[in-house]
Design goal:
70 residues; 2 helices; 50% helix
Length: 70
């Protein structure tokens, strides 16, 4: 499946890809290893991309769908 198969806008696809690339750079994927916290340098960008993505999702989904960022 591709993001476009879900009807995501190019704006949302770009935001999610940028967030994922950054997260892959800071996360550990070794099974059994705790996932480290992002560095102080990476946190602002991760938070910014998350806020932007949530705003776009809220704009794109029907009004009866509740969107929460946790």
């Amino acid at each position: 499946m591709e993001p476009s198969d879900y009807g995501f806008s190019e704006e949302l696809i770009d935001l999610l890809r940028r967030w994922h690339v950054l997260w892959e750079r800071v996360a550990s994927f070794d099974i059994g290893e705790p996932v480290p916290e992002p560095s102080a340098a990476d946190r602002p960008e991760l938070k910014s991309l998350k806020r932007l993505a949530v705003a776009v999702i809220k704009r794109e989904v029907p009004p009866d769908v509740q969107v929460r960022a946790e």
